[in-house]
């Protein structure tokens, strides 16, 4: 694999789909500098799915899984759909971020370390409040289910003898903007699942809500490349390349160096 590939210009991203306000629009994987994040707005309502087709992206490593229409649905146990409370915690978090966000940013610029990495992770999102909510929800999910191993197994299933090694909070770069989620590294594969459902337009013209998943078996992995934004070196990315030259870019890591090290080692031991 030619690691000089990072310098090549990516193909122009597909136009973002049109969706009603209150929807995250599902895009296709692209390099970070090809984002069209202006089309990404917050979720306030999750309708029931209208289809169960799992992949219309043309990329064999991308799978989209419809949102179950109740909290006990067996189609995807990773999700717990519940009614929106009368008083949303989003307003509280927004107020807190408004009060301390600038101070936190100034402080972490000086202190660096984990606090600075976490703040950078939140700012990677087009909406800091939504990113904070996603991290709180994911932390609650992991605690309730008994650890990342259980969440991984519920989300992707498990192969005989497969063990989860690491889990990293990050974003998948897509044409519709960065998608917040968790990147898992097991002894058999690399897998990503979005924290939130996304909207896409199906063939009938209706909207379908689904979770964005990427699954790459380790024996299909051909390259793990580090990269950074030349205009802002603190924006660091990890590009993975598969058999067939499918590319995925991950960004906004809380633990970038550890993620790069472990993903690179997974490639070397093949």
UniProtKB/TrEMBL annotation:
Signal peptide: none annotated. Residues 1-23 are annotated as: Disordered. It holds the Pfam family GRAM. Residues 150-228 form the GRAM domain. It comes from the Eukaryota. Belongs to the GEM family. This is (wild Malaysian banana) hypothetical protein.
